[in-house]
Amino acid sequence: MKSTLNLPPILLILAILGLWHCQPEKQPEKGLKDYYQAYFPMGVAVSPYSLDDSATVKLILSQFSSLTAENAMKMGPIHPHQDTFRWEPADKIVAFAEQHGLKLRGHTLCWHSQAPDWMFVEGDSQRVSKDTLLARLENHIAAVAGRYSGKIYAWDVVNEAISDAPDEFYRNSIWYEVCGEEYIAKAFEYARKYDPAAKLIYNDYNVFDSAKCEKIYQMVKSMREKGVPIDGVGLQGHWSVYGPSEDQLRRTLDRLSGLGVELQITELDISIYQKEGTRREKRDTDIDVFTPELGQRQIDTYDMIFRVFRDYKDAITSVTFWNISDKHSWLDNFPVRGRKDYPLLFDQDHQPKKAYNAVVNF
Ligand code: XIL
Q1: For ligand 1, atom 13, which residue shows the shortest CA distance?
Q2: Could you tell me the sign of the dihedral formed by the alpha carbons of 182, 183, 185, 189, in that order?
Q3: Nearest CA residue ID for atom 16, ligand 1
Q4: Is 50 in the pocket of ligand 1 (CB under 6 A)?
Q5: Distance between CA atoms of 114 and 107, rounded to whole angstroms?
Q6: Residue of 291, 243, 233, 235 whose CA lies nearest to 270
């Protein structure tokens, strides 16, 4: 009997290749989305450019099951002039999500920041009237929510409408100045009208501040009693290794889950710095080194918050990280331009950090 070794070398190589090809595919590595499958979708905020980079795409697809457009669906970027929409960047993210079977969150239909100037002026640069502004808001939501209707499971309809000041209820934004609180209810009504299937979320930061949490609670409660279609509260989750504490976080989730609405963690990152509310210049004393001590604090913080999130899995219906890895975070430039931060679960080479293990080992 002839042995295979008597085959001409080329046939031998082909035989080996054939055998190798028949081996079962290597199991893909488990990612965040798999560890948390029984809990909530795990999402990430992306730019359209990040989807051009193959290493980034690989990381996204192996780890996450939901996407948010970091900027592309905001009022200014998507609707820069009254008669101009810039759809391509958002369309690209939507198409990517559809192609890969990822869920999509929409962010955001009404915000004072990154809103286009044209929206607030009328005639000879006079302040827009309330009627005109509400009509523009409806047109905007009709166009944007309408275009992606049925493709988005949750929209951040109104972003950051509550004041941080203890003696002030609503933020004194241009929306509030022109319309009073009415713009909030209207935005939710328009969103329901143009994308009836999406969960409609009120989204804000510093929600663990008990005074702010209480204002959000009261606003959502009274609006829902009046029939305003608010389905949930988004906690942005721009937190730090210095807080919130477990106690603060649990009290916040207890209070808000008492509303009987969905809770979503919409923009999670854990900064290595103390939180500061306003922009400032970089100082000589700003040392942007990710020390082992800060690393350990971050591991402990991620461990704690995900333990709490799991405890509240009946209320929490999604968790989204704000950016993909420490290679780039919006916190590299906020609140201090050029001060590097390290707030995510993947390092600057896209490798899982120790904090990642703390999140998935439970
Ligand atoms: C940030 C983006 O990450 C930055 O790229 C942009 O320059 C400013 O906005 N709260 C929000 C998000 O709701 O939309 C913000 O995103 C971060 C704070």
Answers
A1: 159
A2: positive
A3: 70
A4: no
A5: 12
A6: 243
* Nearest protein CA to atom 5 of ligand 1, as residue: 330
Q: Are the C-beta atoms of 117 and 124 separated by less than 8 Å? A: no
Read off the tokens for 339.
Answer: 């001060």
For 51-86, what is each residue's pLDDT tens digit?
999 999 999 999 999 999 999 999 999 999 999 999
C-beta of 70 in contact with ligand 1 (< 6 A): yes
Which of these, 64, 79, 68, lies nearest to 141 by C-alpha position? 79
| Interval 103-136: pLDDT, tens | 999 999 999 999 999 999 998 878 999 999 999 9
Query: Average pLDDT of the chain?
Result: 94
User: Scanning the structure block, which residue is given the tokens 């970091």?
Assistant: 70
Q: Return the ∠ at Cα 204 (arms to 227 and 352), rounded to 5°.
A: 130
Task: Say what the pLDDT of residue 4 is.
Answer: 45
Task: Report how far ligand 1's centroid is from the alpha carbon of 265 (Å).
Answer: 15
Query: What pTM, to 2 d.p., does this model score?
Result: 0.92
Q: Cα–Cα distance between 6 and 28 in angstroms, integer?
A: 37
Amino acid at 95: A
